[in-house]
Structures are given as structure tokens and as C-alpha cells.
């Protein structure tokens, strides 16, 4: 997919049909990302892992769950994903698996920035949040220690709503 053919406004969602259309646009964009990783001489297994993680984040969380515009730079989707949604929606969340997802996410956003689709400040925010492994490690640890109504405090520290 040539960046000249990518129109960020095409990624807006209002209706269910829009969500399905945007999911297809994201799939095409992720395929271009994967192909670029391979074209740059990356190991096929690593390219596959990075693309799979970016796909999971973009299509399942950003578009599917949050229904956010992929190119909206008013907030970073990384912290609510890595510090909450991934942990709650994964049978056995681990920092090792999450680290792989974060590598795919940051590599994908660098791809977007390299094609002029996101701003340098937005990329910097994404990179900072993807690099905060200590925070996410603590989030996973504290999730397993929740008792009683402690879940509400756990969510308050890194909420999904309004994020």
C-alpha cells in the first residue's frame, strides 16, 4: 500500500459498516508493514511476530474494542492496552508476551511515521509508553494479587474508560 493511497480520513468510524471497512483498511496497512519489514531484509519469523503483535493491537484493541481512529494523536492507545486490556483479556498475561506485543506496536508506529502518517511527537509518546516495561510488569503482578473489591483500585490506576 503506497502512502499516497492512504487517506487518514478514510479510517473514521461511525457505523458498523465503517468498522468493517476500517478493519479491511487496517489489514491492508498491516500487510504493507509486514512486506516492508521483509523487504528490508528482516528475518521472516521476526517480521511475522512484529506484524502479528501490531495486528492484535490495532485490529482487536484500537479499532475493534475502543473504536478509535488509527491516526488520532490526541491520546496514546498504548497504556490502556498494555496496562489494562491485554492483562484482563489474556488467560495468562506475562511481561515476556507483552514485551513482544510492545515491540510490534512501536515498530508499526515507526513505520507510520516513516511514511509521514503520524507526527514525530505522537511517535515519541508511543515509544515512551512502549518502553515502560517496569510499569507493565507491576500491573501484571498487581493484577494477580487483587482481592476483594481491589479490582476497582487496580483499574483506576490505568483505566480503559475515557482513555
SSE layout:
Blueprint: H1 16-39, H2 44-65, H3 78-88, H4 95-114, H5 120-130, H6 133-144, H7 150-157
Report on the structure:
This protein has 163 residues and is mainly α. The chain has helices at residues 16-39, 44-65, 78-88, 95-114, 120-130, 133-144, 150-157. Helix 1 runs antiparallel to helix 2 (44-65), helix 2 crosses helix 4 and helix 3 packs parallel to helix 6 (133-144). The two termini are 30 Å apart. The mean pLDDT is 91.
Helix content: 55-70%
Sheet bearing the most strands, described?
none
Terminal-residue CA separation: 30 Å
Low-confidence stretches: none
What's the average pLDDT? Answer: 91
What percent of residues are in strands?
under 5%
Order of helices and strands: HHHHHHH
What is the 3D form? Answer: globular
**Could you tell me the radius of gyration in angstroms?**
16 Å
**Total beta-strand segments:** 0
Structure characteristics:
163 residues; mainly alpha; globular
Structure, briefly:
Helices cover 66% and strands 0% of the residues. It has 163 residues and is mostly helical. Helix 1 (16-39) packs antiparallel against helix 2 (44-65), helix 2 crosses helix 4 and helix 3 runs parallel beside helix 6 (133-144).
Amino acid at each position: 500500500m503506497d502512502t499516497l493511497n492512504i487517506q487518514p480520513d478514510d479510517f473514521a468510524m461511525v457505523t458498523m459498516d465503517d468498522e468493517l471497512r476500517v478493519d479491511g483498511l487496517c489489514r491492508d496497512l498491516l500487510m504493507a508493514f509486514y512486506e516492508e519489514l521483509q523487504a528490508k531484509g528482516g528475518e521472516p519469523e521476526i517480521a511475522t511476530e512484529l506484524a502479528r503483535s501490531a495486528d492484535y493491537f490495532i485490529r482487536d484493541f484500537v479499532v475493534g474494542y475502543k473504536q478509535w481512529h488509527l491516526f488520532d494523536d490526541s491520546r496514546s492507545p498504548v497504556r490502556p492496552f498494555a496496562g489494562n486490556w491485554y492483562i484482563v483479556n489474556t488467560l495468562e498475561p506475562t511481561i515476556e508476551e507483552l514485551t513482544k506485543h510492545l515491540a510490534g506496536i512501536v515498530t508499526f508506529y515507526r513505520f507510520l511515521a516513516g511514511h509521514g502518517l503520524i507526527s514525530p511527537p505522537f511517535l515519541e509518546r508511543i515509544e515512551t509508553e512502549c518502553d515502560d516495561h517496569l510499569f507493565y510488569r507491576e500491573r501484571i503482578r498487581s493484577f494477580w494479587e487483587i482481592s476483594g473489591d481491589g479490582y476497582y483500585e487496580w483499574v483506576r490506576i490505568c483505566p480503559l474508560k475515557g482513555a
